[in-house]
Amino acid sequence: MPSFPYSALLIFLGFLPSLIWLNFYFREDCHPEPKHLLTKVFLMGIIIAPLAVLFQWLLIKCSGSFSLHNLCSPLGILPGSSPEFFLWSSFVEELIKFYAIKLIIMNNAEFDEPIDAMIYMMAAALGFAAIENTLIVFQTDGIAMTVNTLILRFIGATLLHALASGLLGYFIAIAWFFQNHRKKLIITGLILATIFHFAFNIIIFTFEGQISALLYTTSLLLGIAFLISILFDKLKSRHVQAPFLS
């Protein structure tokens, strides 16, 4: 049982990658969102994360698949090794992160610019990633391994969560301008975020333990990060203040 100071250190380290990325993308907003709302969304991403475990557990129970492999399972604690499992887990995580902002933001008066959708989606995603990282570092052995794990997750899984949700956030933002197609756009964003998330996980699983996994996932993340940067700029050029009807 880790001592209290060591446990506190692990929690801090588990949250650090998410906080760094949150600060980075927070600066992308021309009109920064209230920090108390960002905090609420971030915390909601943490609070509803166990739903991912529940839905994965239901899939495992229904499929009867009890593989011991747990490389890419949500929160790193449930087994799963089939492409179907990875696809389901990717969809569930993206849906849950969307639900986090739907609960807090969609009808909030502070949600007054399209670009807000990307910022809030990324905040929820980084909250989800923070609790995931924290649970994983508690399973590592020694501070050196903990730091190595977090470095890999900082440029890997944590960024993945932010980018996938940012992609969905863009489609929520576009729905601002096309209210008649709002549901279709949000569903499209959810599908694309799921595909991106699934591709990342399946690459890691397919090339487990190989340098190819790092090369392919890094290329994928850099490509989507570049796309997200372009999408941010496009939304900044379409500054509009109007209510978003959920």
Give the helices and strands, then pairings.
Blueprint (H helix, E strand, L loop, with lengths): L3 H23 L8 H13 L2 H14 L19 H22 L10 H23 L5 H12 L2 H18 L7 H25 L4 H26 L10
Describe the structure.
The structure is a single chain. The protein has 246 residues and is mainly α. It has one domain (4-236). It has helices at 4-26, 35-47, 50-63, 83-104, 115-137, 143-154, 157-174, 182-206, 211-236. Mean pLDDT is 85; it is low at 65-79.
Count of alpha/pi helices? 9
Low-confidence stretches: 65-79
Strand content: under 5%
Shape: globular
Q: What letter string, H or E per element, gives the SSE order?
A: HHHHHHHHH
Structural class by secondary-structure content: mainly alpha
Q: How far is the N terminus from the C terminus?
A: 46 Å
Q: Tell me about the biggest sheet?
A: none
Mean pLDDT: 85
- How many whole angstroms does the radius of gyration measure? 18 Å
Q: Report the strand count.
A: 0
Helix content: over 70%
